[in-house]
Amino acid sequence: MPLSSENLKTLEEQFPVNNNCMYLNHAAVSPWPRCTSNAVQKFAEENCQTGAQGYLTWLKKDQDLRIKLAKLVGSKNPDCVALVKNTSEALSLVAYGLDWQAGDIVLVSDDEFPSNRIVWESLTQKFGVIVQKIHISKDDPEAEILNAINSSTLKPKLISVSAVQYASGIKLDLAKLGEACKTNNVLFCVDAIQAVGAMEFKCDDWHIDFAMADGHKWMLGPEGLGFFFVNENHIKNLNLYQYGWHMIKGAGDFSIKDWEPVSTAQRFECGSPNMLAGYALEASTDLLLEFGLENVSDAIELNHAFLLEKLQALGAEILSPQNSNIRAGILTFRFEGMDSTKMYHDLMNKNVVCANRGGGVRFSPHFHTTKDCMEKAIEVVKSLL
């Protein structure tokens, strides 16, 4: 359903970026909304004027952020959410928190972003873990993954997939995969960075054991702060390898000698929190929750469909799925006989902010992206043909 005129006016005020460039790169790094910029400026000025006088208030903001992030990822329990620096840190907490035996099998896709590949490959050298790559096709993305999960001979210990593939934009049916993992006692880990903030996400309902994302893509937040969701059944079972004052019971009482980690996911936050980024990410999260993830997802789908139609009319080869059930906000394309890398650089030079991924140019509009912005970008593409 299209956004109301009132919502569109709010978005126009929140995203001045649309007046300054044709921004189609939310799958890389998103511009901040006005509310996030204001929150950071307010926090910075408070710090400038009174220092850490309000530190206890800052800590409460930290907990408020966990509560809101739990809503964003579809978890009823904010104790399952930790604040981490980035996706890679959270993936490492899983990879090096589990107990491994030589020959244990981890399944990943054959087109993963390096964050969700390198960490598992490192286990091969240290523990003899076997990392098996599974092909994800546009026709039936889950088919080979489900075959591997259900295999009576393969018996993987863990599957780690991106909810949405960063280059092609293929969206996986996480509910279907989660059910299969639960049935076969396979741990289910999801790199959610290309999904959370762009669509409804349901950690609890989809039987996800671990999920993580940095906040700087579809969540509209800063780089360097994200979330790590851990199913409550695994919080105490992951081995800890990072320790510090912030992850113990009674944190802040520096006289404690006999300490123990807290029983919540905060045990994975070993040191001082990133307060500045926390204020930023909370403001962005508030905006997404205010508009509602269903509305956000619908708007992104409409923007994707608009760009798809216009690019096809120009004769583009579409590398992303065209089936609305398996596509997300990512639209990758190329033109026969044209160098996509050169086209990417030409687009950037003409103020169209995009990416060069998966053998083509990648557009990734968000819910605030205006029709005018997209029409202008298409005109620039047309001028390069």
Question: Could you explain the architecture of this structure?
Answer:
With 385 residues, the chain is of the alpha/beta class. The protein has two domains: 5-24 and 293-384, Alpha-Beta Complex (Aspartate Aminotransferase, domain 1); 46-289, Type I PLP-dependent aspartate aminotransferase-like (Major domain) (Aspartate Aminotransferase, domain 2, 3-Layer(aba) Sandwich), CATH 3.40.640.10. 40% of the residues lie in helices and 13% in strands. It is built from twelve helices and 13 strands. The chain has helices at 5-14, 17-20, 34-50, 55-73, 87-95, 115-127, 143-150, 174-184, 275-291, 293-313, 340-349, 371-384; strands spanning 22-23, 81-84, 105-109, 130-134, 158-162, 187-191, 210-214, 226-230, 317-318, 331-334, 352-353, 355-357, 360-363. The strands form three sheets. A seven-stranded mixed sheet has the order 2-8-7-6-5-3-4, sandwiched between helices. Helix 3 (34-50) runs antiparallel to helix 9 (275-291), helix 4 (55-73) crosses helix 9 and helix 10 packs parallel to helix 12 (371-384). The chain starts with a helix and ends with a helix. The mean pLDDT is 96.
Shape: globular
**Rounded mean pLDDT score:** 96
Strand order of the largest sheet: 2-8-7-6-5-3-4
| Tally of structural domains | 2
Classify the beta-strand content into a percent band: 5-15%
The ordered H/E elements are HHEHHEHEHEHEHEEEHHEEHEEEH
Radius of gyration: 21 Å
Oligomer: single chain
In the CATH hierarchy, what is the architecture of the largest domain at level 2? 3-Layer(aba) Sandwich
